[in-house]
């Protein structure tokens, strides 16, 4: 076998296969767009069979280029809270996949909060009650989709996050397992034990026998058939956890921010769970056989999807790349503030019923002002999360950034200016896939440790130092907080 690492990166808007060398260089890659469906307001779904078909196509494309014999091992990373329902015998989906952005369980979450269950759930799982997480989605499907309920009654239903589904199909049904990071996002896992909580499964009406076993993020996690060869799967983690590994956040207090469809900040919290007092999430960063690392996370539901909305729904731009020149063309937003709460407000507000606003509109506002305000929203939302992290005792001097949006130099500089800290961008900005490759490399023995993997595979491309005055920062933050207050007042 060679020393190349194949990573399957199944995201919210695309499915990718990336082949890395042991030096952290991309040797081959392929991608397919993933269609989202919106059958009702607040509902977001995927076709899980398309996910599988596209995964196979991407794997075939890169292995045809590289050769299966040169693949040493496989890593998997995925959109986390999205849940798939499939038949235990055939592996075929029984219903649409309910995407992490979906809000259909808002009423159920509100009922559970009203009944006083949130403190117990947070203490056990590190999470808050929100439609974002997987558990209430499973409960809803069992109550509302006859095909899912019938399969559960017949003992033929498998339920899992996208990583579990892909491992099941790659192994032709031999592996029904998730990793601890994905399990930690379900509202069903005891965070300290890394096992399903019978009490929480009962509370949400989710039979434990429908769920996969919970495993580690690195090691021999199963095998996948690629052509005539069986290739070991040796790394698995949810996308944001993999990105934290890919960014080398191996020391407590280090923070990364990924700007993709949404934006997600993860702070390494060390070897013990850190329960936030400021509405951040406590989660597993990664779990190896000899090491468990915890994290604090701030989840921002809308980032790149706001730019996509400007392009596809409003027609203000033809491509995301245009946003940089448009933002530079204006000295400021002329009073326009964009709060892109299309799927509610995430951390640190957790208002699932919130909806987006663009405030400060006058007859003199041009599309460049709106585009710039959209980009400024990324830094404003990030500042909200970093303020909460600071209140919880984590105050980084540098922010490691990644994701498709950070190709935009203006955005990177705006982050540094608004946050008043240095911002660091790596050579490979898709660090979700890179982190999965690092975990797979450790799990296969290619690297002795995560530190060894980071030293070999991560490379810094550029750093952005803050340049704005404190007065400018203060004015900007005041305008943003006023606009958020307007959103909350409308609930």
Describe the structure in your own words.
The protein has helices spanning 48-66, 106-114, 118-125, 134-144, 146-154, 162-170, 180-183, 198-204, 239-246, 304-312, 322-328, 367-391, 409-419, 431-444, 450-457, 470-489, and strands at 4-10, 14-20, 26-33, 45-46, 71-78, 83-87, 97-98, 157-161, 177-179, 189-190, 195-196, 213-215, 223-226, 229-238, 255-259, 263-270, 281-288, 291-300, 337-339, 357-359, 398-402, 422-426, 460-464. It is of the alpha+beta class and 491 residues long. It has a domain at 4-237: 2-Layer Sandwich (Nucleotidyltransferase, domain 5). Strands 17-18-16-15-21-22-23 form a seven-stranded mixed sheet, with helices on both faces. The radius of gyration is 21 Å and the shape is globular. The mean pLDDT is 94.
Gist of the model:
The protein is α+β, with helices and mostly antiparallel strands and 491 residues long.
- Helical proportion, percent range: 25-40%
- Low-pLDDT regions: none
**Rg, alpha carbons:** 21 Å
Which structural class do the helices and strands define? Answer: alpha+beta
Name some characteristics of this structure.
491 residues; alpha+beta; Nucleotidyltransferase, domain 5; 23 strands; globular; seven-stranded mixed β-sheet
How are the elements arranged and paired?
Elements: E1 4-10, E2 14-20, E3 26-33, E4 45-46, H1 48-66, E5 71-78, E6 83-87, E7 97-98, H2 106-114, H3 118-125, H4 134-144, H5 146-154, E8 157-161, H6 162-170, E9 177-179, H7 180-183, E10 189-190, E11 195-196, H8 198-204, E12 213-215, E13 223-226, E14 229-238, H9 239-246, E15 255-259, E16 263-270, E17 281-288, E18 291-300, H10 304-312, H11 322-328, E19 337-339, E20 357-359, H12 367-391, E21 398-402, H13 409-419, E22 422-426, H14 431-444, H15 450-457, E23 460-464, H16 470-489
Parallel strand pairs: 1-5, 5-14, 9-12, 15-21, 21-22
Antiparallel strand pairs: 1-2, 2-3, 4-7, 6-8, 10-11, 13-14, 15-16, 16-18, 17-18, 19-20, 22-23
Helix pairs in contact: 4-5, 9-14, 11-12, 12-13, 14-15
